[in-house]
Design goal:
The protein is an alpha+beta fold and 167 residues long. The protein is built from 6 helices and 9 strands; from the N terminus they run H-E-E-H-H-H-E-E-H-E-E-E-E-E-H. It folds into 2 domains: 67 residues, no CATH class; 91 residues, no CATH class. Helices cover 21% and strands 29% of the residues. The relative contact order is 0.11. It binds iron/sulfur cluster (2 copies).
């Protein structure tokens, strides 16, 4: 436990898509008062109730990662860790020490098939130890397929989910 609280941060209410509200990623939720909080807090959707960004709960990420300061919201996925940039600061993840820490996590994760994915709106960049794969805009109906060589991430491509299911 980190003992952290959201405080004046509301960035997930912008960067995350909320299916139950048909809210797209990279747009402020209509119920959010940025910097203050949710205006429908007691009636907010289940998705919002269940959400914790990694900065709130994971001590690996120091105080400098606080989302409204770093402009980065950290989440997990089935494949690893996702770093979602505020769309007004698309290069926030390249600033130090963030880029260095992201690459270190990518290096540590490669052996365990854990990926680091930077997301800016719908644009996705897969980060490896010593390189990155800019996948461009990735649709909700598309999936990322990674290529490994000897445990090292050497390639990535985007394909339709329906093509993946056929294989
Ligand atoms: S991004 Fe994290 S710290 Fe900020 S409001 Fe959301 S859950 Fe709280
Ligand atoms: S409903 Fe509330 S908690 Fe959920 S995204 Fe909107 S402002 Fe944030």
């Amino acid at each position: 436990m980190t003992g952290r609280a959201c405080g004046d941060c509301t960035l997930c209410c912008k960067v995350m898509a909320i299916e139950q509200l048909a809210k797209p990623a990279a747009q402020w939720c209509r119920h959010c008062k940025p910097g203050h909080g949710c205006q429908i807090y007691h009636d907010r959707p289940v998705e919002c109730r269940q959400f914790n960004c990694l900065w709130l709960i994971d001590e690996r990420f120091g105080p400098h990662w606080k989302p409204n300061k770093s402009k980065l919201v950290l989440t997990t996925s089935a494949d690893g860790i996702e770093v979602r940039c505020d769309s007004t600061a698309p290069d926030a993840w390249r600033k130090e020490p963030f880029q260095r820490e992201i690459r270190a996590l990518a290096a540590a994760g490669e052996a365990h098939d854990v990926t680091m994915l930077v997301i800016i709106g719908s644009r996705m960049i897969l980060v490896a130890t010593d390189r990155e794969f800019d996948l461009g805009l990735v649709g909700a109906d598309e999936r990322i397929v990674r290529e490994f060589d000897g445990g090292q991430l050497v390639g990535a491509a985007v394909i339709k989910a329906s093509d993946l299911e056929r294989d």
